Amino acid sequence: MLEMTREEFEELVAEALDRVPPELMRLLDNVAVFVEDEPDPSDPDLLGLYEGTPLTERGEWYAGVLPDRITIYRGPTLRMCTTREEVVEETEVTVVHEIAHHFGIDDARLHDLGYG
Q1: What pTM, to 2 d.p., does this model score?
Q2: Which member of 46, 67, 81, 111 lies 3.0 to 4.6 Å from 39 by CB, making a disulfide possible if both were Cys?
Q3: Could you tell me the CA-to-CA distances from 35 to 2, 9, 23, 29, 102 in Å, in that order?
């Protein structure tokens, strides 16, 4: 397994967020991004998770709710990558993938676009 501190990995996630086009970042609404070491044991290979209500499903009822949550998992990413460059690339793909869920894009479409 590739070694990388939590702080180094958090920095890569921050850099991946910085590379998302500003016009898309401005459209994010009520979203917080987190880094965790490991996902739920029931899905140990999960790289990222979006929890919340996508923009496409929000209606008049959507007010005063806690922020949606995007979590990027360090452990599975480091286990699947063999170089720092692979971690950078996989982190970028995972960040975009989870942001896309916030916009209502499903996994099938993301796979078609190369973000699966």
Answers
A1: 0.91
A2: 46
A3: 17, 8, 23, 19, 17
